[in-house]
Amino acid sequence: MALLSEVKKDYGKLQNYVNGEWIDSTSDKVIDIENPSTGGIIGKLPMSTVDETKAAIEAAHEAWWSWRETPPITRARVMFKLKELMEQHFENIARIMVQEQGKTIDEARGETRRTIENVEVASGIPSLMMGYNLEDGAAEGIDEDAVISPLGVFGCICPFNFPAMIPFWFWPYAVATGNAYIVKPSSQVPTTMNYIMKIIDQAGFPPGVINLVNGSHEVSDTLMEHPKVKGISFVGSSPIAKYIYKHSAENGKRVQAQGGAKNSLVVMPDANLDRTVANMLASYYGCAGQRCLAGSNMIAVGNIADPLMKKWVEGTKKIKMGYGLDESVNMGPVISAKAKQKVIDYVDGAEKAGAKVLLDGRKATVPGYEKGHFIGPTVVDGVTPDMKIAKEEVFGPVVSFLRMDSMDDAIEFIHKSPFGNAASVYTQSGKTARDFRYKCQCGNIGINVGIVAAMAYFPFAGYKDSFFGDLHGQGQDAIKFFTDRKVVITRWF
Amino acid sequence: MVECDFPECTTFGAVMRFALELEKGASGVYDELAKEPKAAAAAETFKALSAAHKKRGELLEFTRQQKLNEMTLEPISELKRENYLIDTHAPKGADVKQAAAFASRMEATSAKFYSDSARVAKPLTAEAARVMDRLGKENLANKAKLDAL
What we know:
Chain A is of the alpha/beta class and 493 residues long. Chain A has 17 helices and 22 strands. In chain B, helix 1 (12-34) packs antiparallel against helix 3. Chain B has 4 helices and no strands. The longest helix of chain B has 26 residues, at 96-121. By secondary structure, chain B is mainly alpha-helical.
């Protein structure tokens, strides 16, 4: 099977999109954009300056009031147009994502679908942002209304693992509700959003309503500190999420900052092993384990441990690794050489601590892609709760296998983690499932589901150090985050 | 002859790609058969079948892009590529019987592919399984039509 074609070999030096125009950054700091499967360079990314970021904020602020005065149904029509355009570019978006992020084409198509779904949901904005009222609500003859209003300029700071979908957890809702927006893509994967912004440019948004500024912490800090920015959305690691939350809040912003994860999948003795293993393979190895919802710890309860491990190893051996533009590939590389080394270090550490590496992907290579950052599916048995690999986020295709006596033991272990993003249980018992979802203190709970990825019309975020903020991404939470309630009390004499 | 590039069916995406290649190949075969002078009596049937396979390809594309809400990433090992390969070299100089027999074998292979794929796809994505099931049944109806020529 031939590889699917790349959209371009070289995307050149990327530009910023500000006030409806594509602008070259004046910065002399430029970094390479790498294809993690081939190790080749597919583009250059300038690190925009503080002044360039401020100019984007000013443009957005200038644009937002007249956009806010645009009726919601008209704003929705632009979103509809964007949805139509994105469908036309669906395959290109997915393939660019494979090129710069390394995920497989199936994963990229899935992400593209999820990306568009957020546009679809935001297209319902006339219904979603309706206020409410009560006749005689204040007193006889005095009515009371709560209207939902946009606030101004918002921005998001995005991670590398979902180059398209994560910006879309936020900006479509912000813009549909009548705000203006600035996207800062990850400097490791800016090309996908750059391509999508060219589609957005054709959809009919007035200049300045949606902007893109490439760069690094200088852009992020400017967004967090500028008085005309009302709120920040962030997705990344927990230490950075905590910093973003604190620093933005100090500057008077609303913040939703999603952090890291350490997700446990608990397999009960009554689980359907064939279906469980098939489902969990996608959870642990999908996107090479670089999802905040990915399985990391596998907890076998009771006597299922040995049969589970046997099937797990058999299943894992079927994983084909390679360049994601080959449609028969199940797993791509991790994002960078540094990320690969970090994963290897965790496995080395576990081995030194007494765990047994049953399947070792540390030295795996893919013929023809020797410069790619591939690390094979790795299974570590004999992991104990005190080991570093059981507690910290690995963000790679590594399974830490733990054995416990009961579901309560598993839940107690999950609760000791500083993270609370997701947890799943595999069982055929409704009672067990009900107990798990009731007791487990995580933001996303799976019952026989290994990746608990909320659809666009449901909120998404974790608990504890996996999320800093209150209103989550997507759905009604997103509408609330990007708006405020204004109460009007009316009496006519 | 249409060049097809059939992948190993190890992922859901590869299964969909295999199906798209099957439809492209089948449509191409019918286009060739429709041009065979000795099979002229069945030319309209072959043209209609070619168009039908093109449309099935569009349905598969639409299904892959717009009807799947979830990433389907489970590795697939049950579908062996070699069991479902079709011959896209339409026989030259074939008469109606020979052309129909050739196409009938192709439809039977496709029917088996879709039947097996639907079974594999069902726990992964019911929507795709429904489409595959439907396409497999159409293959069998096409086969019956060809066998009657």
